[in-house]
């Protein structure tokens, strides 16, 4: 299987040399080199609904984890007020797990070794649930931050392993749709989970929001235990493969750079969307959760629109649109203008996760799990970098500085994607 895991994408461009310099060979089903390299394709005797039920359970797991990672976005002000820290310091609740998740994506992928992937995913979800319940009862900000570090371990490991599981759960002809559904959990979480958590925090307090995500984690654990089949590993990724793929595959390098620029720009602005909407757009605090819900609906639509289109072209359109949107939301006042721009923001960013995953699978069809772990690591490092840079901008300059900085990074991403086809068209031996 090659680019089938990227739904609706064009055939993969000429790829670089194999990670260790040898000639590429087409992946063989069941040998651990096909997408989802952890095992063989689903058995023909399994009922189709069981495979799709397992896909839904994995998607729920990603939704739960990303919701947990980004939950503080809508709760920065109340958490900071309750625990006596500034908005910028409270932003560390996003920065810290992002950094940990970035390190843990490759570490867990390699460290999982020959362990059954079902066991690994369940353990990571359980860790996330416990961490959120601990945060809900934390007496001070230091304890909350410690719990957030555990969330980062769960996010990085789960996302990196889950990215290639669709090939093991559904027939080959359905892998594209299944992969889109699995990664649909990412934008759905960032654009629906956050506003739902914000609303719950406004109604019952921020501790109730953390407790609810912890409870959702326990429900997700039960779903994974019931619906996931055994997923024994058949290929053990080693640490040298990670830098080798990044060094020798120019398309993978470009994808990692684009991921960093787009996601850093996004979270420099989005982490502080609440103060931006209040201070620049003049939106009443009582309407923030409702507007974020609208942002969420637009984002989900953007995810499924992007899932049927070429990854490179989609990322060029997305990064270009976000450059304009973030620049405008930083300078144009008015609740109506702010609302329109927020909805456009959600629609554009909703296509990012599935597109960058499609880019990486097309760039390295011979090593999809390795490429995915690199993308997930950079995605989460970028979340942390964006939240940190945005916090420094908000505390040191003003709220509008965060989206303006994000717009500059989006412009850099658009230029990088635009140059991508030239890079990808070069011959494998052209270093």
TrEMBL record:
<feature type="transmembrane region" description="Helical">
    <location>
        <begin position="315"/>
        <end position="334"/>
    </location>
</feature>
<feature type="transmembrane region" description="Helical">
    <location>
        <begin position="119"/>
        <end position="139"/>
    </location>
</feature>
<feature type="transmembrane region" description="Helical">
    <location>
        <begin position="179"/>
        <end position="200"/>
    </location>
</feature>
<protein>
    <submittedName>
        <fullName>MFS transporter</fullName>
    </submittedName>
</protein>
<dbReference type="InterPro" id="IPR050189">
    <property type="entry name" value="MFS_Efflux_Transporters"/>
</dbReference>
<feature type="transmembrane region" description="Helical">
    <location>
        <begin position="285"/>
        <end position="306"/>
    </location>
</feature>
<keyword id="KW-1133">Transmembrane helix</keyword>
<feature type="compositionally biased region" description="Low complexity">
    <location>
        <begin position="30"/>
        <end position="42"/>
    </location>
</feature>
<dbReference type="InterPro" id="IPR020846">
    <property type="entry name" value="MFS_dom"/>
</dbReference>
<feature type="transmembrane region" description="Helical">
    <location>
        <begin position="145"/>
        <end position="167"/>
    </location>
</feature>
<feature type="transmembrane region" description="Helical">
    <location>
        <begin position="373"/>
        <end position="394"/>
    </location>
</feature>
<keyword id="KW-1003">Cell membrane</keyword>
<dbReference type="Pfam" id="PF07690">
    <property type="entry name" value="MFS_1"/>
</dbReference>
<feature type="transmembrane region" description="Helical">
    <location>
        <begin position="206"/>
        <end position="231"/>
    </location>
</feature>
<feature type="transmembrane region" description="Helical">
    <location>
        <begin position="251"/>
        <end position="273"/>
    </location>
</feature>
<feature type="transmembrane region" description="Helical">
    <location>
        <begin position="406"/>
        <end position="425"/>
    </location>
</feature>
<feature type="transmembrane region" description="Helical">
    <location>
        <begin position="52"/>
        <end position="71"/>
    </location>
</feature>
<dbReference type="InterPro" id="IPR011701">
    <property type="entry name" value="MFS"/>
</dbReference>
<dbReference type="InterPro" id="IPR036259">
    <property type="entry name" value="MFS_trans_sf"/>
</dbReference>
<feature type="domain" description="Major facilitator superfamily (MFS) profile">
    <location>
        <begin position="54"/>
        <end position="431"/>
    </location>
</feature>
<keyword id="KW-0812">Transmembrane</keyword>
<feature type="region of interest" description="Disordered">
    <location>
        <begin position="1"/>
        <end position="42"/>
    </location>
</feature>
<feature type="transmembrane region" description="Helical">
    <location>
        <begin position="91"/>
        <end position="112"/>
    </location>
</feature>
<feature type="transmembrane region" description="Helical">
    <location>
        <begin position="340"/>
        <end position="361"/>
    </location>
</feature>
<keyword id="KW-0472">Membrane</keyword>
């Amino acid at each position: 299987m090659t680019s089938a895991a990227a739904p609706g994408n064009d055939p993969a461009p000429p790829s670089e040399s194999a990670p260790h310099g040898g000639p590429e060979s087409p992946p063989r089903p069941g040998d651990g080199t096909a997408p989802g390299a952890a095992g063989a394709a689903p058995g023909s005797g399994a009922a189709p609904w069981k495979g799709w039920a397992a896909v839904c359970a994995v998607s729920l797991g990603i939704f739960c984890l990303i919701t947990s990672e980004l939950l503080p976005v809508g709760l920065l002000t109340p958490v900071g007020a309750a625990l006596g820290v500034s908005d910028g310091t409270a932003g560390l609740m996003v920065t810290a797990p992002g950094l940990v998740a970035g390190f843990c994506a490759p570490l867990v992928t390699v460290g999982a070794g020959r362990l059954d992937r079902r066991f690994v995913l369940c353990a990571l979800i359980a860790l996330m649930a416990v961490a959120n319940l601990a945060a809900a009862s934390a007496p001070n900000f230091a304890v909350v931050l410690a719990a957030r570090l555990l969330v980062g371990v769960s996010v990085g490991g789960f996302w990196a392993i889950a990215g290639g599981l669709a090939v093991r759960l559904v027939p080959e002809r359905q892998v594209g749709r299944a992969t889109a559904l699995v990664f649909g959990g990412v934008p759905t979480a960032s654009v629906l989970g956050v506003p739902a958590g914000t609303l719950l925090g406004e109604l019952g307090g921020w501790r109730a929001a953390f407790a609810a995500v912890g409870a959702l984690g326990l429900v997700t654990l039960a779903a994974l235990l019931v619906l996931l089949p055994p997923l024994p590993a058949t290929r053990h990724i080693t640490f040298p493969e990670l830098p080798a793929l990044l060094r020798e595959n120019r398309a993978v390098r470009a994808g990692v750079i684009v991921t960093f620029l787009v996601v850093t720009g996004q979270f420099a602005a989005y982490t502080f969307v609440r103060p931006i909407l209040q201070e620049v757009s003049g939106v009443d605090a009582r309407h923030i959760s409702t507007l974020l819900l609208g942002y969420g609906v637009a984002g989900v639509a953007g995810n499924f629109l992007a899932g049927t289109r070429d990854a490179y072209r989609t990322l060029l359109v997305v990064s270009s649109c976000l450059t304009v949107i973030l620049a405008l939301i930083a300078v144009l006042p008015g609740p109506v203008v702010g609302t329109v721009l927020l909805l456009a923001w959600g629609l554009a960013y909703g296509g990012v996760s599935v597109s960058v995953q499609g880019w990486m699978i097309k760039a390295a069809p011979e090593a999809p799990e390795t490429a995915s772990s690199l993308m997930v690591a950079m995605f989460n490092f970028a979340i942390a970098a964006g939240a940190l840079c945005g916090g420094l901008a908000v505390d040191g300059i003003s709220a509008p500085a965060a989206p303006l900085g994000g717009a500059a990074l989006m412009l850099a991403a658009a230029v990088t994607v635009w140059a991508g086809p030239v890079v990808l068209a070069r011959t494998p031996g052209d270093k």
